[in-house]
Amino acid sequence: MAEADGTRRSGTSDPGTLYLVPTPIGNPGDITLRAIEVLGRVGVVASEDTRHTRRLLQSLEIDARLLSYHDHNEESRSPQLLGMLRDGTDVALVSDAGTPLVNDPGYRLVAAAVEADVPVRPLPGATASVTALIGSGLPNHQFHYVGFLPRREAARRSALTALRSSVATLVFFEAPHRIVAMLEDVRAVLGDRPAALARNLTKDDEEFLRGSLSELVAELGAESVVRGQFTVVVAGAPGEPAAEDEALARQLTETMVRHGADPRLVREVVREVTGMPRNWVYEQVRLAARK
């Protein structure tokens, strides 16, 4: 077992624990009490950028040993950290912002720790993808986190083609200098779907832009220079309505029309009760009125 400072207790063979610790994505106040406790207790903090993490720890009055852990040294650093864990040292893994492993390095270390029967403890906390999703106004009962698309247009469109039939809401990250081109490709491949852009989440200048993809392209295109950190949420492909939903909608439409209800009221009631698409309901009301 490890001591309170994360170092190994003499005479024990228990491994340390690997903690996956989220850090704020913009607002420093979003650090959790548990994250502070763990960061102040472990023997080593493995971080994507030690300078960035040191500033965070200093603001929390935490003096911790830091080791770099990023895309360029993940393969070589993982065995070193695993050795520390096996020797009984607790290790916290953090990224520059948000939850480790979500578009950040860490998979190799977690997989190796699991294989070696080293305890892995993920902490809940800040993540831009879910924060953007729940504030987007788009369906969130099913979503697909995509992260960054390829930088080159051909590869980007190929990746989007594979997502074309997914009914899940899609969540992307994109850099400000590529955001307009990325949105144009999403519109070209997936169609002009409803979408939301979350810019600078949790910061004082946080902003949500909502509308169709073409509207969002036009809005960003009007900016002289596009700045900010973007999380992009795009509605999934329209699903095929279930047969029983169609039957209920038709029956309700025909009954209301037969009793003289105003067509506009019929459309509103049928859509509210059945959730059927607007255009489909409009056509059913038109057909029912002709009978």
Q: How is this structure best described in words?
A:
With 291 residues, this protein is of the alpha/beta class. The protein folds into 3 domains: 18-122, Tetrapyrrole methylase, N-terminal domain (Cobalt-precorrin-4 Transmethylase, domain 1, 3-Layer(aba) Sandwich); 128-234, Tetrapyrrole methylase, C-terminal domain (Methyltransferase, Cobalt-precorrin-4 Transmethylase, Domain 2, 2-Layer Sandwich), CATH 3.30.950.10; 243-290. The chain is 41% helix and 16% strand. The chain has 11 helices and 10 strands. It has helices spanning 33-39, 50-59, 74-86, 107-115, 128-136, 153-161, 179-190, 213-221, 243-258, 263-274, 278-290; strands at 18-20, 44-47, 66-68, 91-94, 120-122, 143-148, 169-174, 194-199, 207-212, 230-234. The strands form 2 sheets. Strands 3-2-4-1-5 form a 5-stranded parallel sheet, with helices on both faces. The protein has a 5-stranded mixed sheet with strand order 6-7-10-8-9. Helix 3 packs parallel to helix 4, helix 9 (243-258) runs antiparallel to helix 10 (263-274) and helix 9 (243-258) crosses helix 11 (278-290). The longest helix is centred in the C-terminal third of the chain and has 16 residues, at 243-258. The termini are far apart.
